[in-house]
Amino acid sequence: MVNNCANPKCAKPLHYLREGRVFVFDVQENRSGKINGGKTGHHLEHYWLCGECSQLLMVEYESEKGVRLVPRLSVGKYVQEKMKVTAALAS
Fold first, then answer.
1. Which of 36, 42, 47, 77 matches a 20 to 30 Å C-alpha distance to 62?
2. Total domain count for the chain?
């Protein structure tokens, strides 16, 4: 359950979903052990940014790094750079 803004500097309590933005990530988890036979599972994680924070920030998830806040203005640049790196690795 999401209770507060995902920005720790804000942490505005969530009362209504009228403003702001919800981010949902399908998080893969590696379960090791004899019971599960080393199978992977997943669960959904929800994050909410209040109206003010959602104008400036976005929530991003990477399996290696976890969840982090990124500036909204640089998201486009970040995606472009990531696409360049992926294309370079593929060729």
1. 36
2. 1
